[in-house]
Write a structure and sequence with these properties.
This is Pyruvate, phosphate dikinase. With 869 residues, the protein is of the alpha/beta class. Among the domains are: 99 residues, ATP-grasp fold, B domain (D-amino Acid Aminotransferase, Chain A, domain 1); 131 residues, Phosphohistidine domain (Glucose Oxidase, domain 1); 303 residues, Phosphoenolpyruvate-binding domains (TIM Barrel, Alpha-Beta Barrel), CATH 3.20.20.60. It is 45% helix and 18% strand. It contains 35 helices and 31 strands. The strands form six sheets. It has an eight-stranded mixed β-sheet with strand order 12-22-21-14-15-16-17-13. β6 and β7 form a beta hairpin. It is elongated. The chain starts with a strand and ends with a helix. The relative contact order is 0.06. Bound molecules: adenosine-5'-diphosphate and magnesium ion (MG) (2 copies). One magnesium ion binds next to loops.
């Protein structure tokens, strides 16, 4: 097997399509080198095959030989040798997995320097300061990244030295100071590792390569892969590349650039650069950067060249690209490119505009495929609801959306506190990959340093997490921060707006965002793609939700839960009277009161959805949910005694108490025990439909019976509904009657059940609960997280439907149901209806509509388009 490929290797396919083998960075370096012929420093990629082999059995057999050969080829191309005491070749060692991944090993620069070669570098460049600055950077990086030492001691020494010699920037530190720093750094290494700092360049190189491979299995990388659903088996590639020097002099520099604004999608180049600096300086946000357009004045030729390259990249990748580049003594070098991450707003704007751009010309389907559910989610992110607040300070709006939470200064704290149900804003000077878990847990992120491409900004944008960065007025201390006279303590509530960059002390009221016009354009294209194949409905329990659902484009209601109406404060006493009724008359009277109330509720919903189907589920939850808490009443009884009414409630609550209420008297079972209940609900519903019809509206009612396990049950429940419809003379309303399939038995017996149903709706929450035997209400905490961590489950099955087990029951249910009734309509209601991966599973199973919460409807419309493509 071949392990190493030079960037200019002649591959059979376009290298950019070989990310599996070369990793993302390596694939694109090869693409830029051999296809686009851009100025890229020579180098080679050690493939992911080598990484997988390394992780399995250690340093791969044969890799040494290949490495030696690749290195001498590189040396030949460069006319320099690694570690040569005269004019040495230096290289960078860069990790690069298929998907870019925080937590992977950071890049080591200037590798190949030692006490001899540094002199060679100084002579060849005629610049002692530059050579020794590169050397001290190298030792610092190698010690932290490869040897795993805590960087703070060296960082502190460097800062102290800068202060002592009065250096404003890193480039102002004189040679002597650098030399003595290098001695101290090496002493630290020896003290901490009991070994000398490696001086042999080949040993340095192999050390760095092993460290990249090893970082694949680091905790941070693993955590990130879990969050993103990336397989642990991919492995990473390693790129070894000849160094170019942005820290050479003031005619040099380094930067990051985007072909369009990744935050807004606005056309025009965007990015940051730093004069006389090396790469990580920009990304880490340790020094304040200049905007890319400032290049125009300082380096006019480079600027023009860069603009041209950006255009070529966009035409070639047919998308917005981000780049990393370095200028060495006036010459431009491209060090990285990839299709860039972007905010939801930007993604939408770019996708729509790129259908117009001559050099890209996306078609509508491609544009729709560019948008993810997360993008839409971000656009629907909350914003500050009013402008009635005082701004404490302002930073850069780095990732849109507003967030409110308690100030929290460490990633560790953030994770703990969120586990305890708190909402936090993570406040840091700057973030590093160590903070990733805290950032994930937090509502939002606030940093005091760094620009729009700092770590905090990039990671937060990728996740759609609100972030404000570079709020320089904030001085962070251990457990508090200060802005001028104001001190904000750990645990105090703040609000941040990741669009405007505002930071506010206290909680600002938040509101949902306004969708942009591109949002509607993309969704209308998505609708064209999916409409005839997969419909999207919403779950809505009242007129208000139904109106929101219609606004977001729902094509009907897939689930109206009638119990939510019963739980309203003014209805609860009536429900209780019905349960407590001693006589039939009492029960009938209570039911009659409920009927009137329900009729008005139904009318509101049907009106909001006139012309569209509305599926109403008859009462589902265990009745004890409507009764007061037994324990609470018993305590009261002991302390102060109960009223007569309360005594009766206690008695009822006791008698309805069940050990396993979720497997108890609920759904159609309730109807069986209290037959008047379902008849009453149907009566209310039919009357509401008749009223709407009389008003000139167009009610389309579907009555749904929950928790059925067999055909006999459904036949019985159906007869009550049918009797009422007949009695009210509502045949012309074409009301259909169907059932939920939410027990495994119902899926298995779907064929006979279908003979009594015009439609099925899969209630995948309960179906998941009962298929796994996982209690929905208890499984989420400890148990689920262990299962996910240990890889016993790939996803939480309550979020992403289990395609193999539950999915199989859905497929079987549909097949068996349709074998009895070929035109059986089939939908899905429940949380899974708004989840992209689940929507795909459902579509493939033959479902004709999904139903989800009103705010998820846009995401479901998009995902449905993706699923049918
Ligand atoms: P990341 O994946 O974190 O972006 P990179 O491998 O891209 O890491 O390296 C970070 C930075 O290091 C680059 O943006 C670039 O500025 C600098 N760098 C990497 N390789 C070289 C090189 N061969 N010459 C000069 N600078 C380099
Ligand atoms: Mg990195
Ligand atoms: Mg990079």
């Amino acid at each position: 097997m071949r392990y190493i490929y030079p960037f200019d290797f002649h591959h059979e396919r376009a290298p950019m399509e070989m990310k599996d083998l070369l990793g993302g960075k390596g694939a694109n370096l090869a693409e830029m080198t051999s296809v686009l012929k851009l100025p890229v420093p020579h180098g080679f990629t050690i493939s992911t095959d080598a990484c997988r082999e390394y992780l399995k059995t250690g340093w791969p057999v044969g890799l040494d030989d290949e490495l030696e050969k690749a290195l001498s080829e590189l040396e030949l191309k460069m006319g320099r040798r690694l570690g040569d005491p005269n004019d040495p070749l230096l290289v960078s060692v860069r990790s690069g997995a298929k998907f870019s991944m925080p937590g992977m090993m950071d890049t080591v620069l200037n590798l190949g320097l030692n006490d001899e070669s540094v002199e060679g570098l100084a002579e060849a460049t005629n610049d002692q300061r530059f050579a020794y600055d590169s050397y001290r950077r190298f030792i610092q990086m190698y010690s932290r990244i490869v040897l795993g030492l805590d960087p703070s001691e060296m960082d502190l020494l460097f800062e102290e030295t800068k202060e002592k010699v009065g250096a404003e920037t890193d480039a102002d530190v004189p040679v002597d100071a650098l030399k003595s720093l290098i001695v101290s750094f090496k002493e630290i290494v020896e003290r901490e590792t009991s070994k000398e700092f490696p001086s042999d360049p080949t040993a340095q190189l192999k050390g760095a390569i092993s460290a990249v491979f090893g970082s694949w299995n680091g905790e941070r990388a693993k955590a990130y892969r879990r969050r993103e659903g990336i397989s642990d088996d991919l492995g990473t590639a390693v790129n070894v590349q000849a160094m170019v020097f942005g820290n050479r002099d003031n005619n040099s520099g380094t930067g990051v650039g985007f072909t369009r604004d990744p935050a807004t999608g606005e056309k025009g180049i965007y990015g940051d650069f730093l004069v006389n600096a090396q790469g990580e300086d920009v990304v880490a946000g340790v020094r304040n950067t200049e905007h890319l357009v400032a290049l125009k004045d300082r380096f006019p030729e480079v600027f023009d060249q860069l603009v041209d390259i950006f255009h070529r990249l966009e035409s070639h990748y047919r998308d917005m690209c981000d780049t990393e580049f370095t200028i060495e003594q006036g010459k431009l070098w491209m060090l990285q490119t990839r299709v860039g991450k972007r905010t939801g707003v930007a993604a939408l704007k770019m996708a729509v505009e790129m259908t117009q751009d001559e050099w890209i010309k996306l078609n509508k389907t491609e544009a729709v495929l560019r948008i993810t559910g997360d993008h839409l989610d971000q656009v629907l992110h909350p914003q500050f609801a009013d402008d009635n607040y005082k701004v404490l300070t302002k930073g850069l709006g780095a990732s849109p959306g507003a967030a409110v939470g308690k100030v929290c200064f460490s990633s560790y704290d953030a994770v703990l506190r969120v586990q305890h149900g708190e909402k936090v804003i993570l406040v840091r000077k700057e973030t590093s990959p160590d903070d990733v878990q805290g950032m994930l847990a937090a509502q939002g992120v606030l940093t005091t340093r760094g620009g729009l491409v700092s770590h905090a900004a990039v990671v937060a944008r990728g996740w759609g997490k609100p972030a404000v960065v570079g709020a320089e007025a904030i001085k962070v201390a251990e457990r508090f921060f200060q802005v001028g006279e104001t001190t904000v303590h750990d645990g105090d509530i703040i609000s941040i707006d990741g669009t405007s960059g505002e930071v506010v002390l206290g909680a600002v009221r938040l509101s949902a965002a306004e969708p942009t016009s591109e949002f509607n354009t993309i969704l209308s294209w998505a609708d064209e793609i999916r409409r005839s194949k997969l419909a999207v409905r919403a779950n809505a329990d009242n007129g208000e939700d139904a109106t929101v659902a219609a606004f977001f484009g729902a094509e009907g209601i897939g689930l109206c839960r009638t119990e939510h109406m019963f739980l309203r404060e003014d209805r609860l006493p009536i429900v209780r009277r019905m349960i407590l009724a001693d006589t039939e008359d009492e029960e009938a009277a209570a039911l009659e009161e409920l009927r009137v109330a329900q009729r008005d509720d139904f009318l509101e919903i049907l009106r909001a959805m006139s012309g569209l189907p509305v599926t109403v589920r008859l009462l589902d939850p265990p009745l004890h949910e409507f009764l007061p808490d037994v324990e609470h009443l018993m305590v009261k009884q002991a302390v102060e005694g109960l009223s007569e009414e309360e005594e009766r409630l206690l008695g009822a609550a006791r008698s309805w108490h069940e050990v396993n209420p979720m497997l108890g008297t609920r759904g159609v079972r309730l109807g069986v025990i209290k037959p008047g209940l379902y008849a009453m609900q149907v009566r209310a519903l039919v009357q509401a439909a008749q009223t709407l019809r009389a008003e000139g509206g167009d009610p389309k009612v579907e009555i749904m019976v929950p928790l059925v396990v067999g055909s006999e049950e459904l036949k019985l429940a159906r007869s009550w509904a049918q009797d009422v419809i007949d009695e009210l003379g509502a045949k012309d309303l074409d009301i259909t009657i169907g059932t939920m399939i939410e027990t495994p038995r119902a899926a298995i017996r779907a064929q006979e059940i279908a003979t009594f149903a015009e439609f099925f709706s899969f209630g995948t929450n309960d179906l998941t609960q009962m298929t796994f035997g996982f209690s929905r209400d208890d499984v989420e905490g400890r148990l689920m997280s262990s299962y996910l961590e240990k890889g016993l489950l790939h996803n939480n099955p309550f979020k992403v439907v289990d395609p193999d087990g539950v999915g199989e029951l859905v497929r079987m249910g549909i097949e068996r149901g349709r074998s009895a009734k070929s035109d059986l309509k089939v939908g899905v209601c429940g949380e899974h209806g708004g989840d992209p991966a689940s929507i795909e599973t459902f579509y493939e199973a033959g479902v004709s509509y999904v139903s989800c919460s009103p705010y998820r409807v846009p995401i479901a419309r998009l995902s449905a388009a993706h699923a049918v493509l």
